[in-house]
Input
Amino acid sequence: MKTRQIINVWALLMMGSSFLAASCRKEQPSADEPIVPSASERNAANPVIETGMTLARINAVIAGASAGQTVLVQPGTYAITGKIAMKAGVSLVKQTSVNPVFDASDLKSKLTLNYSSELNNCLFSGLTFWNIRVVVTNASKAAFKHCIFDYGKRTPNTNKTNNLKDDYLELVNTDSSLVFNCVFSCRSTDPGRGVWTKNTTNARIQKNTFGNGGSTGYFVCAINDNSLRNSVIEDNTIARNSALNTIDSLTDHGMYAHSFNGLTISGNTFASGWPTNASGGNIKARNGQHLTISNNTLNDSGILLYEYSNTPAFPYLKHVMVSNNAIHISSPANDMYHGIGYYRNNTTDSEYSINITGNRLPNGTIYALSTNIAPANFNAAGGGVYNNDTATGYLLLRSGIANSDNY
Output
């Protein structure tokens, strides 16, 4: 009898405990409610963003991570209508071989995510962004690896001059930022830009792909650079759709650099490129110093070097090396657009040490005929035009510019 009573009391206690737990259990919060990560989520070695999570839940998982942790993102498509709230030192990385998609394509215009120091030492890896633009300002060591940027929407009735926010990824006043092995796509209805560096130091734009020459190749410009010091743009592949070549208002050079100090453009391939006119040129560089353009392969157009009078901070082009580039032009023409051209309209300052050596452009032109050119300054510190292949093209140089062994 006593044994049965003990059992009954134990059963009542267990029922009461279950009822108490049930009465205290919260319903799942809505997307608008603040979410507090559990202790296990906060302490997990790799917190996980699970398939189907709302933006609020995504941000809660990231908020629960600590500097040095990696937040894993499961495959799936996540509706993004606002900022993904990052924390310094936290990485956001795909969990499997399948890229998760952060999708803002339901919005009427490109969603801009603005970050500052909360992106210090942060990594985005293996993520796909649809109709999303990321702007990083005053951050150190922010990195984007193996990401895809696609389906960005262009603001209606804009062109290359009245819409300078048509890039996917913009780095401003950053140090040691990295964009590595990412894919950038622009569609026919929404041409735009890929990456823009502004006042950066030690930026690296490496091994990325911009367009496929067809459906994803509608680029106004692939890479814009206004770096402050020591930027490297190398081993990228650019394939523009030539359908845009007839639309001058949406043609703004392939890689366009100005007001730079220390810039290397090396090993890039323009599988198909920009037109041979003042709006084109696969590479255009103006008003800066310490520039190297080497070992690039350029199809359809070449390299344009300018010194304009309207950039007072850099009223010169100094210490330039253009070497060992392969430039494939369909037919020769005696102008500055069909190969390697240098032009100056600035009369307050001068070029200094422009070296053009070892380039292969058998069907192209090397052009430096501007009446403002000072040959002695062009030739200074080893400048001049040497050992270039222009076999069926033109070598058009102002008298006094040093040159030899061109063929």
About this structure: The mean pLDDT is 91.
